[in-house]
Amino acid sequence: xxxxxxxxxxxxxxxxxxxxxxxxxxxxxxxxxxxxxxxxxxxxxxxxxxxxxxxxxxxxxxxxxxxxxxxxxxxxxxxxxxxxxxxxxxxxxxxxxxxxxxxxxxxxxxxxxxxxxxxxxxxxxxxxxxxxxxxxxxxxxxxxxxxxxxxxxxxxxxxxxxxxxxxxxxxxxxxxxxxxxxxxxxxxxxxxxxxxxxxxxxxxxxxxxxxxxxxxxxxxxxxxxxxxxxxxxxxxxxxxxxxxxxxxxxxxxxxxxxxxxxxxxxxxxxxxxxxxxxxxxxxxxxxxxxxxxxxxxxxxxxxxxxxxxxxxxxxxxxxxxxxxxxxxxxxxxxxxxxxxxxxxx
Length: 345
Description:
By secondary structure, the protein is mostly helical. It has helices at residues 3-34, 41-56, 62-84, 91-111, 119-130, 133-142, 150-172, 196-218, 220-230, 232-237, 242-264, 274-288, 294-314, 319-325, 327-337; strands spanning 186-189, 192-195. A two-stranded antiparallel ribbon has the order 1-2. It is globular.
C-alpha cells in the first residue's frame, strides 16, 4: 500500500464514517429516550433511498401506501382509546394527523409531475413520505410496551425489522437502484480526486449534527427529550408526556435514517435490505459509546468507517467480520469497568 492508496481508503472510510455517525446518533437517541435498541434504523436508510428513486422515475412510491395503512391503524387505535376515555375532542386531530395528511400527500404526488421536479423538492417529498412512519411505528409497536424490559423491547425491534424488510421487498422489489448525484464534478485536493457527492455526504452530515445539537440545547422539545433520557419517571412527574418524547425521538430517527439513505444512494446500489448491514455498523459505533454518549458515538463511527475501508484492502473477504469483531473488546472492557446491576421489574 502506497500513500496515494492510503489517502483514497481514508476518504472512503471518512465518507462512510459520517453516515455511520448519523445512524449511531439516532440509535443512542432512541435508546436514551425510550430504552429501545432500534434495529429497524437501517431499514429507513433503504426506504428513504428507494422512495427517492421511485419519485425520480415519476411513479408513486410504495412507501406512500405503507404510510396510508399505518396512519389508518394509528387512527383506529388512538380513536378507540379516546372513545373509551370520552375524549371526543381528540377525534378530529387524530383523524387529521393520521388520515388526512397521508391522503393529502397521496393527492399531491398524484397531481404533480414528480419525475421532473427539482431534486430538492423530490428529496423533501420523499422525506414527507418516509419520516412519519417513524412515530407511527412507535405508536403501534413500542408505546403499548413502554414500561417493558429492554429485552422485551429488543425482541419487538427484531420483529419490526423483519416486518419492514418483508414490506420493503413487497413494495420495492428485489432489484437494486441508484440515484443521480446531488451535483456532478470532481475536485483535486492533496493529490486526491474527491467526488462532489462525497463532499455532500460530509457537509450534510456535519450540518445535521449541528442542527441536532442546537435542537437539544436551545429548544423546549429538545430539552424535554434530554430530561426524558436522564430520568423517564422524573420527566413524567414534571409534566413531560413521555409518549410524545418517544414519538419525537422516532421521528428524528426516521429523518436521520431516510436522509442518510438519500446521501449514499448515488454512491452505492441500494436494495430493500441494504440498510440492515449499514445500520449494524452504526450500532457498533453506538456500542462503543455505551449507547449513551453522542460525541463518542460519532468518533466510534469514524473508527468503524476507517477500519472497514482499510480492511477491504488487506482482507476484503473478512472486512465485515473485522468490523463486527470490534464489539468484543469494547464489551469486555465495559464489562470489567462496570458493576452488574439487575434491571428493575
